[in-house]
Design the sequence.
């Protein structure tokens, strides 16, 4: 589990560094704005258009002066800010996935003929890792140096959350 967490963190840092150092962040930013219009209502898009430059300046101001000089492209910071705010606006969809997984797991567990006294620790730990990878997948999308449609992120995180939470409940140990 620790190795998986360390690997996700290293991938997140490498992805952010690639986004900042690459020169395509402004192009990806424009494409992300177009894709956001497919998922969010027009009123929310208009609010984000006014808020994102202010958030970008605020985040950019928190950087140390040496890092501020190295990061010439503010569009990379603006892209990450846009994607994180999109994830924030899509949080109810991710919570719905968690509720669906919980309800399905509870139903499956209550309908078991005889509770197995010893559940597979491997399945339980895989389910726990899946629950932990759900926010990591969102952060990796926020820092990805390529164009990934928002609907793909929503569907993949939704599916990961449902199956992970369901398996977490079904394979939870009955005795400690």
Sequence:
């Amino acid at each position: 589990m620790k190795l998986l967490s360390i690997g996700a963190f290293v991938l997140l840092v490498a992805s952010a560094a690639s986004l900042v150092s690459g020169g395509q962040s402004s192009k990806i930013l424009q494409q992300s704005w177009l894709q956001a219009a497919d998922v969010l209502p027009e009123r929310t898009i208009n609010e984000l258009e006014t808020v994102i430059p202010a958030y970008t300046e605020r985040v950019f101001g928190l950087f140390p002066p040496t890092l501020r000089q190295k990061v010439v492209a503010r569009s990379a910071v603006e892209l990450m800010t846009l994607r994180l705010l999109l994830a924030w606006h899509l949080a109810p969809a991710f919570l719905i996935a968690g509720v669906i997984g919980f309800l399905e797991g509870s139903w499956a567990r209550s309908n078991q003929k005889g509770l197995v006294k010893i559940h597979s620790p491997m399945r339980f730990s895989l389910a726990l890792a899946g629950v932990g990878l759900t926010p990591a997948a969102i952060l990796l999308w926020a820092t990805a140096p390529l164009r990934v449609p928002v609907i793909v992120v929503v569907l993949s995180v939704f599916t990961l959350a449902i199956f992970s939470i369901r398996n977490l409940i079904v394979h939870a140990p009955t005795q400690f």
